Amino acid sequence: MFSLAQSVEPGTFDLDHVAEMQCPGLCLFMSVNTAEQHTAERFEQLLDTAQTLLQELGGTLCDQQRRPFTSQQLETYRSQFASYA
Fold first, then answer.
1. What is the pLDDT of residue 21?
2. 24-29 long-range contacts, CB within 8 A, separation 24+
3. pLDDT by residue, tens only, the chain of 85 residues
4. What is the pLDDT at residue 5?
5. Radius of gyration of the chain from Cα atoms?
């Protein structure tokens, strides 16, 4: 559906020690296949997960350039993914 990585090298998580780790940022990302019918739904699930992480951990939702994510960007993505349906 989508992936989660640390925003710093190595990007992976040591699941045996995840409770003790500190991480300056998280990256949620997904592959987009124009032939796939459920891209918009996957994007909404990614967004829901991001919102949950923000509520639980704090922080700021950012775009791929690490700038705060705007409602205009959100609508642009939703419009693009809706065209794949």
1. 86
2. 25/59, 26/53, 26/57, 28/2, 28/3, 28/4, 28/53, 29/2, 29/3, 29/5
3. 899 999 989 899 888 988 888 888 999 999 887 677 788 899 999 999 999 999 999 999 999 899 999 999 999 989 988 877 6
4. 93
5. 14
Cα distance between residue 63 and residue 65, in whole Å: 5
Is residue 3 within 8 Å of 49, Cβ to Cβ? Answer: no
Which residues fall within 8 angstroms of residue 19, CB to CB, at 6 or more apart? none
